[in-house]
Every structure is written in C-alpha cells, then in structure tokens.
Design goal:
Number of strands: 7
Largest sheet: 7 strands, mixed
Radius of gyration: 17 Å
Shape: globular
Low-confidence stretches: 16-21
Mean pLDDT: 86
Structural class: alpha/beta
Bound molecules: guanosine-5'-diphosphate
Number of domains: 1
Number of helices: 7
CATH architecture: 3-Layer(aba) Sandwich
Order of helices and strands: HHEEHEEHEHEHEH
Strand content: 15-25%
C-alpha cells in the first residue's frame, strides 16, 4: 500500500460524515480479527448446485452485491489476499457460490447479480441455488449486501432485502468505493442508504463504509466479522 493510498485513506477518514454512528471496535477486537484474517484461509468449495454445498458446520458470512459493485476487491482486501475472489471470476464459474474457511468462520462469496446478458435458464438456475442457500443455511449469520456508494440502493438490492426479511436472514449494508463519492454528496447518500436498511426488519442498523482501493473501513469490517466466528477450541 503506497503513500497515495495512505493519503486517500486519511482524506476519507477526515470527512466528518463518514464516521459510523456506532462506537469503533476496541483494540482487542481489531487485533483478534487481524489475527483471524492473517491466519489460514482455505478454499472449501465452489457450489454450482445444491448438491455441491459443503456441510453446514460453521458460522458463515456471505458477500453479495450487483456485478461490478467491488465485491472481489473487498473480499480480497478483507482477507489480505489477492487470489481468493479471482476463483469466482474464472469464466464459466461466475455463478457459483464460493466457500473459504478461516479458523472458525466460513466466508461465502455469492455470485454478483444484475447482469444483463445471461441466458434465462442460467438466471433461473442461479436464482434457485441462491434462494435455497439463503433460506436454508442454519450457519448463515449475516449477509453483507454491498452497495456502490456512488449509485446507492437499486431495485434489485431492495428485492434481496425483502427476501432477507421473509427468510429472517440478518443483512448488513456495506458501502463500497467510498473514495469515489464527492464529499458534498456523502451525507445525503448515507442517509438514503441507512433509510433503505431501516425499512427492513432484517436490516442491521450500522452501515459499513469501505473503500478497498484506499483500505478504508477494512479493519473495522474484519472486527465485525470476527465477532461472528466460532470461539477457538480450548488448548
Ligand atoms: P465485482 O464485480 O463486484 O467483483 O467488482 P470488482 O472488485 O471486480 O470491481 C469492479 C470495478 O470497481 C473494478 O474496476 C475495480 O477496480 C473497481 N473498484 C473496486 N473497489 C473499488 C474502490 O474501493 N474504489 C474504487 N475507486 N474503485 C473500486
């Protein structure tokens, strides 16, 4: 991470409207999460059909968002690895559900939605697998629903929020590409996105504000995910 990124990070952090309303995670939580994400991160499965889903045995956090929202970049930033999300971008494998295991936490990379060119049969298959996963997974603790900070919440994002309400799946909105939003537009943009989450019973009240390119909000996101991990086995 060069000086340029550090400067952008400082610039973002100094904008008053960007400070999340919740207290920042304490240093113990940040350190525990840093260690969790610095540890082993194993590729477990790429599920194309329900039969390929791995056993439901750990707490899981799933990343979801429109195509191009910045999901691969965010998954890579959070895990500190540049190769994880690339698996899901291999042509022909884009609509699989990818599972990675940390020590006590499964990270799940769900396929991006909103693509225009996919054949109808492919979209139907994909919708079926997603719905089955999202509604039937006991270990799924939270879905991180990524929203491009420049674009705000779109109807397709709203449709997922409604599905989460129906399925009682907790979701949290994560704004991406924060470095791209002109400071003057931020307060209004944040208020709109927070209001969208508040309209849904399954919506977590805290927004995560991130920029993968400026490494902004990444440690805080790790801490919030770390809090969902299974406690380490004694000894
Ligand atoms: P995905 O399709 O959701 O996996 O999105 P990608 O991670 O591939 O990102 C899509 C585009 O957005 C790429 O051109 C990225 O370089 C860009 N992008 C991703 N994250 C950021 C960010 O934090 N800031 C900016 N400015 N661009 C980003």
């Amino acid at each position: 991470m060069g000086d340029h990124a550090a400067r952008r990070r400082e610039d973002i952090a100094s904008r008053p409207a960007l400070h999340p309303p919740e207290p920042a995670p304490d240093t113990d939580a940040l350190e525990a999460a840093r260690r969790l994400f610095a540890g082993e991160c194993r590729f477990i499965a790429a599920a194309h059909t329900a039969r390929d889903l791995p056993p439901d045995r750990l707490p899981e956090v799933a990343f979801l968002g429109r195509s191009n929202v910045g999901k691969s970049s965010l998954v890579n930033a959070v895990t500190g690895r540049n190769s994880l999300a690339r698996v899901s971008r291999t042509p022909g494998r884009t609509r699989q559900i990818i599972f990675f295991e940390l020590d006590g936490l499964m990270l799940v990379d769900l396929p991006g939605y909103g693509f225009a060119s996919a054949p109808k049969s492919e979209i139907a298959r994909w919708n079926e697998l997603m719905t089955l996963y999202l509604k039937g997974r006991a270990g799924l603790k939270r879905v991180l629903l990524l929203i491009d900070a420049r674009q705000g919440v779109k109807p397709a994002d709203e449709a997922f929020m409604t599905l989460f309400d129906e399925a009682a799946v907790s979701f949290q909105l994560v704004l991406t590409k924060l470095d791209k939003v002109p400071p003057a537009e931020l307060p209004e943009r944040l208020a709109e996105v927070a209001a969208a989450a508040a309209r849904h019973t399954a919506g977590h009240p805290q927004l995560h504000l991130t920029s993968a390119h400026a490494s902004f909000g990444i440690a805080e996101l790790r801490a919030s995910l770390g809090a969902l991990a299974a406690p380490a086995a004694p000894g």
